[in-house]
Write a structure and sequence with these properties.
- This protein has helices at about 10-15, 25-30, 35-40, 45-55, 55-60, 65-75, 75-80, 85-95, 100-110, 115-120.
- By secondary structure, the chain is mostly helical.
- The protein has one domain (about 25-120): Protocatechuate 4,5-dioxygenase, Chain A (Orthogonal Bundle).
- It is flat.
């Protein structure tokens, strides 16, 4: 498919047809801007301490949607991605909670940390049967 300004939205919408995958597009970046800025704020020790002392109060300082705030409070990483979170920025939340990247991403798949690690060491998830939502996989 040739991409031009007329059909760019149709082209990008095709990414939503990949099961279990959220492609980080410009639309998601705009949606998650403040969520990702919040996550980046956790790079500073004083912000991590403030967040850990009163998570809700700290989140309320950011112009995020309620769904974004709730996803942070619930540590629902898949919801954070749906709300425009970038996985590399979300890692700041994992590390604030002293959770390894491997453990956090493993929870996103519904797998144990050991099972996720074994899958990745074996070459990752097979694409067989997971190519299209519209085509029912």
């Amino acid at each position: 498919m040739t991409v031009n300004t007329v059909d760019i939205h149709s082209y990008l919408a095709e990414f939503d047809d990949i099961p279990g995958t959220r492609v980080y597009t410009a639309k998601r970046a705009r949606q998650g801007y403040h969520l990702n800025q919040f996550a980046m704020s956790l790079m500073k020790a004083e912000n991590r301490a403030r967040f850990k002392a009163n998570e809700r109060a700290y989140l309320d300082e950011w112009p995020m949607t309620e769904a974004q705030r709730q996803a942070v409070l619930d540590r629902n990483y898949n919801a954070l991605l749906d709300e425009g979170g970038n996985i590399y920025f979300m890692a700041k939340i994992f590390f604030t909670d002293e959770i390894s990247y491997l453990r956090a991403v493993g929870t996103m798949t519904g797998m144990s940390e050991a099972d996720y690690q074994a899958m990745m060491l074996a070459g990752g998830r097979s694409p067989e049967g997971v190519r299209s939502i519209k085509g029912k996989y």
